[in-house]
Amino acid sequence: MTENCDIPDALIAALRDARHVCILTGAGVSAESGVPTFREAQDGLWAEYNPQDLATPEAFVADPALIWRWYRWRRETVSAVEPNPGHFAIALLAELVPQLTLITQNVDNLHQRAGSRNVIEYHGNIFEDRCFADGSLRHADDQTAVPICTDCGSNLRPGVVWFGEAIPEHAMDKSGSAAVDCDVFLSIGTSSLVYPAAGLADLAKQNGAAVVEINPNPTTHAANFDLAIAGNSGLVLPELVDCLAH
Ligand code: BV8
After folding, report:
1. Among 42-56, 59-73, 163-177, 212-226, whose mean pLDDT is lowest?
2. pLDDT in the model for residue 4
């Protein structure tokens, strides 16, 4: 470790030498903003539900009003919080390296609110509404129990990718290219359980990138990575950016 810097020298050196840095974030990056991670038990009236069961087209077809209540509760939760130092550090890191690709599994828009640009939303965005019939983007949430597409009359749905649904093609292509091309891949705040997102780190590794995980609870993937930093992203990332900048 360099004096006054708790980030491993090897990571700082790799970032200094990197032409292209790719970052994949998960719900853990938003945890310090107060957004419950995807796998944490939800609180209050949603405690009895498993998010993985609700975030599916089948659940929506079965009870669209219930699913809309869940997403409206999540929209309110996310709208009421602020990006945390980890989000801001990632936005700053983009100014310190030649090329940075940010891929997020999060649907909470917090990276954008922290100033990150060209964010690849691998699982969509919770604030978007789409037509359930054809997936087209709509701006018609009339706040009724189940808003209707004004174009075709089918239900509107939140603009996120549910389990069993394909990742948007542009997100898939851009993320895959970045994972193949990058010199350093940072996997931050994700349990690496959801595919195909969790396969991006392996793809980067197979193509010669140095792969680093930042997570207070090292995942099973960490054993295959070059480095695992057991810490909260809201603390580790500002430290990393500070070390890199000086
Ligand atoms: C696909 C949007 C194929 C919705 C999400 C059957 C049929 C089809 C597919 C499958 C199937 N069985 C399995 C699959 C594959 C499936 C999958 O991977 N399932 C898993 C559960 C096994 N994947 C899919 O279905 C994907 N699509 O495969 O399509 C296909 C192809 C062609 C045509 C048709 C189909 C789609 C998956 C997308 C699901 N949507 N979100 C919504 O949000 O409502 S996923 C959801 O999980 C969130 O996006 C979340 O981000 C993501 C991953 O979770 P994490 O982000 O990692 O969050 P988690 O809570 O798990 O972990 C948080 C971590 O943070 C922890 O490790 C914790 O230690 C750490 N942490 C905590 N605090 C901090 C911290 N880290 C740092 N700092 C801190 N302070």
Report:
1. 42-56
2. 76
User: Cα dihedral sign for 52, 56, 58, 60?
Assistant: positive
Query: Using CA atoms, how far apart are residues 69 and 170, in angstroms rounded to an integer?
Result: 29
Ligand 1 center from residue 200 Cα (angstroms): 13
Q: What is the pLDDT of residue 194?
A: 95
| Alpha carbon 192 to its chain's center | 11
Starting at the edge strand found earlier in the chain, the sheet holding 184-188 runs 120-121, 99-104, 20-25, 184-188, 210-214, 227-229
Residues taking part in catalysis? 123
Question: In which band, very low, low, confident or very high, does the pLDDT at 19 lie, cut at 50, 70 and 90?
Answer: very high
Could you tell me what percent of the chain has a pLDDT over 90? 88
Structural domain including 147 reads 36-80+129-160
**CATH assignment at residue 63:** 3.30.1600.10
Q: Is 92 in the same domain as 189?
A: yes
Orientation of helix 233-245 relative to helix 85-93, angle to 10°: 30
45 C-alpha vs ligand 1 centroid, how far in Å?
Answer: 22
Pocket test for ligand 1, best of 67, 195, 221, 235 (most atoms within 8 A of CB): 195
Q: Cα separation of 60 and 246, whole Å?
A: 50
Name the region of 36 (left: φ>0; alpha: ψ -120 to 50; beta: rest): beta
Helix locations, the chain, DSSP H: 9-17, 28-31, 51-54, 57-62, 64-79, 85-93, 110-113, 169-181, 199-206, 233-245
**The whole model's pTM is what?**
0.96
